[in-house]
Amino acid sequence: MVDELAVRTVGQHGPHVMFLHGLFGQGRNFTTLAKRLAEGGRQVSMVDLPNHGHSPWSAGHSYPQMAEQVTALLANQPEPVVLVGHSMGGKVAMTVALSRPELVRALVVVDIAPVSYPPDRAGSPFAEYVQAMRSIDLSALHERSEADAVLAPVVPDAGVRAFLLQSLVRDPSADPPWRWRLNLPVLAEHLGELTRFPDPVPGAHYDGPVLWIAGASSGYVSPADRPAMNAWFPQTRLVRIKGAGHWVHSEQPGVFLDVLSHFLDELTAV
Questions:
Q1: Which of 12, 15, 162, 224: CA 20 to 30 A from 130?
Q2: CA distances from 106 to 98, 197, 245 (A)
Q3: What number of other Cβ atoms are within 10 A of residue 36's Cβ?
Q4: Tell me, what's the pLDDT at 1?
Q5: What is the arithmetic mean of pLDDT over 130-156?
Q6: How far does Cα 109 stand from its chain's mean position?
Q7: Is the pTM of this model over 0.85?
Q8: How far is CA 238 from CA 20, 66, 105, 241, in A?
Q9: In this structure, which long-range contacts are made by residues 217-220, counting pairs with CB atoms below 8 Å and at least 24 apart in sequence?
């Protein structure tokens, strides 16, 4: 039996959309988008993946493990859902769709491809981020600004620092009072595994509608990835959003919402 993931849902009725966040994220990263979609008559769930947010920690962190836990969520839904996954969450979503396609009404993959990434591709700084977060002495920490100062030399973008520090929480009754909602030791151990894409079962494919949304300034989805995308997901449509890098939904939220809403409207019209 798998541990139950933390889920927050907005909207009571309508087609069900489920968001899966990327590495270091939380389901609440999609709150504004979820509320807007719910206002349009949809039920929207935001999942905390394992070792993140309010979900349980585990000794491992692999795509098959995460997909198993998401599949357990989907199996309890009355209808197939539209699964939206960013980065790590996108690979989880693809793994679920390939293994249990009957549970997925449609798939939206955000700025990641079904490929294994070499260390030098896309300039991923995630290993440095983990090291910087782990270097913070929580027992000596008094203010969040002190943690921000420790991260600044490694993470110069203030927005990215704020994104990482959302998982640093304070509980005055605890000792020490500061803690991470990220299982940093396990994430550090399995970062290499997260750069890969698990080999699907031979012959596996997902034939439902697939929307790929990529940041035009990101290096995570390239023309060289299209053969793999088309082989496993033959109904793929790719949209690149200008003025956005890897965190497309936060860098261009209005355009992202428009693109996603149009896709969801098309599904409803079918």
A1: 224
A2: 12, 20, 24
A3: 17
A4: 38
A5: 95
A6: 9
A7: yes
A8: 19, 25, 18, 10
A9: 217/243, 217/244, 217/245, 218/111, 218/122, 218/244, 218/245, 218/246, 218/248, 219/121, 219/122, 219/123, 220/87, 220/111, 220/112, 220/113, 220/117, 220/122, 220/246
